Each structure stands twice: as C-alpha cells, then as structure tokens.
Amino acid sequence: MSALISLLLPTRGRAQLAERFLRSALDCACSPQDVEIVIYADDDDPASHRITCPGLRVRRLVGPRISMGQCNSACLAASSGEIVILTNDDIVVRTNGWDNVIRDTHTSIEDQIYLAYPNDLLKGRKLCTFPILSRKTCTLIGEPFPSMYHGAFIDYHLMDVFKRLERAGQRRLLYLQDVVFEHMHYRTGKSRFDQTYSERNRFADDNVFLGLRDLRSEAAAKLLATVLREPAPAARPSRSAADNESHLTRATLGDRELPLQWSLRLAIWFAARTFARWILRPTRVDGA
C-alpha cells in the first residue's frame, strides 16, 4: 500500500490561493487518493471554511486565531499520514509525480528518521521552507512545531535540529531539488502584498528561536539515540525561554552541537536582524 501523505495547511484570508495550491497538488500527484489535506482556518474567516478540492481528502479544522505553531500542531494531531508536510497557501506544485518521489524517499530511510524538503525556487537548498517529516520523527521529537512560534522560524527550528544530527555524524537532511513546490512569495513579485503578509510581525519569533535552543538539543538527542539504537536520553530540566536576547551566542557560535557553517550563518543572520529591528523600530513622538 502507498504511504499516506498529509499536507498540513494553516490558512487565513486566502481561500482562492489555498484552492489553487490544492488543485496543483492534485493535478501533479500520481496517487491523489493517498494524499490528505488538513486545513486550519480561523473562525472569523468564513471563506476559508469552504475550501475544497474534489479528488483530494480535505479535512477542515475551524477554531480561534492562534499561533502558527499551534495551527500546525492541531493539523498534525488531526492527520493520519505516515508522511507529514508543512505547507503554505502561497504554493504551486510544479512537479509531476511529486508524491511518488516523496514516498520513495520515505521508504529509502529504514529507520524513518529524516527531514526532507522540496525546492521552493526561493530559498532552495539553504532552508527547508516546506519541511517533510515521517510521523515517527514527529512523535520522537514530541513537539516538532512549538506553539511559541507566532508565524515564522518553524523551518529554521527543524533544520537546526537536523544540523545537530549532522554534527554528530548522521546526515539526515534530504534536499529534493527536482521536486518543485514553488513559493509564490510577494518578495519575488509572484503575488501581491496582502493583509495576511502585512499583519505579520517579522521579528516576533527571533527571541523565541534563540530561547528554544535546549528544546532543539533535546530533540536531536532523542533522534540520535534512535538512529544509533541506544537508550533514550534522560529528560533535562526545562528552561525558561524568557530573556532570549541573551542567548544569541549560546544558540549560534557558542553552540558546539552545531556545524560551524550553520552556527556562523545563524550568528550573522541574527545580528543583521537585530540591526534591522533597531533601524525599523517605531519612532516615539512626544505628546502622542
């Protein structure tokens, strides 16, 4: 039997774009009967409650407006696929047989511990913009999509976990260059800057990522133990994610669990974002 693929799709205010994505996934699939879509729509977004795509299994969850981490976690809990893919509503699938390539990748990994990702024609190899995970990997991690992430960084979070595995000698990052999930992002001129984009705080999750360094370390340790067939590591005391700005060095160049190239990239990127946040900070007007 073909492995069931679950596409997790949080969406808001983009019913037409979401249906465009679903149609492209259907049209390019070899076995659409083995693809399910789990949508999370806000209860104040009625147009998204009617999203459908005849030919695909579509399950809609409707609830209050919550964080992106919570949306994806809710979709994961409601899904049943052996393979899980985080998606956006601004995607167009371009590769015929995309589902078979992903299933073949899944079955090629005997212990099912991997993070695969398609070519989004934007970040490409550099980032797992649309992460592909086995359900076993999700279960082992425990909380693969932490609820603290408001709208970004889940891709960086997962990639960081698997970079730790890479540093430990286990290469489980799989870039599927020939599987194209085109990211129709406004920055490339492929879509307009809409309300959904404008409502996002681009810096809201920086400190969350830095503060969840230990959570990523624990996730990598669990996966590594499974790969090496060793006992699961003992749970570590939980740490607060408060005062995350002080964790920049600890979560980047000071983190010996990370490959140097990745930690250096993070350090430079976060330093640049800190500077940008300072430049773009709201200007106080006296008497306002």
Task: Give an account of the 3D structure.
This protein has an 8-stranded mixed β-sheet with strand order 3-2-1-4-7-6-8-5, with helices on both faces. The chain contains 10 helices and 8 strands. Mean pLDDT is 92; it is low at 241-245 and 283-288. It has a domain at 5-198: Alpha-Beta Complex (Spore Coat Polysaccharide Biosynthesis Protein SpsA, Chain A), CATH 3.90.550.10. The radius of gyration is 19 Å and the shape is globular. Helix 5 (154-167) packs across helix 8. Helix 1 (15-28) links the parallel strand 1 (5-11) and strand 2. It is of the alpha/beta class and 288 residues long.
Q: Which stretches of 5+ consecutive residues score pLDDT under 50?
A: 241-245, 283-288
The CATH architecture of the domain at 5-198 comes to Alpha-Beta Complex
Instruction: Give the percentage of residues in beta strands.
Output: 15-25%
State the end-to-end distance. 65 Å
Helicity, in percent?
A: 25-40%
Mean pLDDT: 92
Oligomer type = single chain
Structural class: alpha/beta
Categorize the overall geometry: globular
Write the layout of secondary structure elements.
Blueprint: E1 5-11, H1 15-28, E2 35-42, E3 57-63, H2 68-78, E4 83-86, E5 91-93, H3 98-108, E6 115-119, E7 132-134, H4 135-141, H5 154-167, E8 173-183, H6 195-198, H7 206-211, H8 213-227, H9 248-251, H10 260-279
Notable features of this structure?
288 residues, Spore Coat Polysaccharide Biosynthesis Protein SpsA, Chain A, 8-stranded mixed sheet, 10 helices, globular
